[in-house]
Design brief:
It is a single chain. By secondary structure, the chain is of the alpha/beta class. The chain folds into two domains: 44-170 and 224-264, Vaccinia Virus protein VP39 (Rossmann fold), CATH 3.40.50.150; 177-222. The chain is 27% helix and 30% strand. The strands form two sheets. The chain has a seven-stranded mixed beta sheet, sandwiched between helices. Strands 6-7-8-9 form a four-stranded antiparallel beta sheet. Strand 2, helix 5 (94-107) and strand 3 form a beta-alpha-beta unit. The two termini are 36 Å apart.
């Protein structure tokens, strides 16, 4: 892992100013109705591109039962359904799951939606594949993050595949935009970011102003290197690990925009 200094931002992440900002369980608050206002550019067309690539590289065929871990508002699950799969979308956010259910009913997909914690998935070893898109990982401490991978491993059938899409910290951290402001439809969104070298986490404060009122959110994601992710995969039990640097299938390098890993569960009947 490269050595980076902590990026300091003035008046950022000050608990005494905004007591609702908390490093613990920040994900329970941040993935609510305002999430869709902060990330409106994540659309179904992009999701279909991601899903087609994931299916090509995992060689999973329809109508396999597959799990979308950290599904959010369900765009990848709905793309999987459109391609003939039986996807189950799992997320902790009831707000995002409600939107997913509404949209899937409108377009009549076969997707199922489950509220649950990715550290303790409420399933047995029944899935042919699991997918984790858009850096939906690293929310917890190291031990709990490893629990996520162990839980995903446990719900896969023998020889099941796990597709993992994560940020490449060697690419992201040097290019981290410290601050930006977006104004659209009467809403102002201020985002401030920093890399906390002591905690090895990328932290973001989101300030959203709507109808004259400000709301504040905090995000904190563990910045794992490729070597650390590879170690976590192997320690969890995954084998035949393949790595890519983007959704075009290019080999991974320090300059790749993404860290995409595919692991396989062993045939435990042997």
């Amino acid at each position: 892992m490269r050595q980076y200094d902590t990026i300091e931002l003035s008046e950022m992440l000050e608990p005494q100013q905004h007591p609702e900002l908390s490093e613990t369980k920040w994900y329970e608050r941040s993935f609510g109705p305002d999430y869709l206002k902060v990330y409106p550019h994540r659309d179904s067309q992009e999701a279909m591109q991601h899903v087609r690539f994931a299916l090509e590289k995992t060689n999973v065929k329809a109508p396999s039962l597959v799990l979308d871990v950290g599904c959010g508002f369900g765009r990848h699950s709905m793309a999987l359904s459109e391609l003939g799969f039986e996807p189950v979308g799992l997320d902790l956010s009831m707000s995002l799951l409600k939107k997913a259910r509404t949209e899937s009913m409108e377009i009549k997909t076969t997707s199922s939606w489950v509220r649950g914690d990715m550290r303790t998935l409420p399933f047995n070893n029944s899935f042919h594949a699991a997918f984790n898109f858009f850096t939906s990982f690293g929310y917890f401490d190291d031990a709990e993050n490893e629990r996520v991978l162990s839980s995903i491993y446990s719900i896969l059938k023998p020889n099941g595949k796990f597709f993992f899409d994560y940020m490449n910290i060697d690419y992201v951290i040097p290019r981290l935009v410290r601050q930006d402001i977006i104004e659209k439809n009467g809403i102002k969104i201020l985002q401030q970011r920093r890399f906390n070298a002591d905690k090895k986490r990328i932290e973001k404060k989101i300030s959203l102003k709507e109808n004259g009122d400000w709301r504040y959110y905090f995000e904190s994601v563990r910045a794992y290197s490729r070597k650390e992710i590879d170690l976590l995969f192997r320690r969890t039990g995954f084998k035949n690990i393949a790595t890519f640097g983007d959704y075009g299938g290019k080999p991974y390098s320090a300059n790749s925009p993404r860290l995409i890993c595919i692991g396989e569960k062993g045939d435990e009947s042997c």
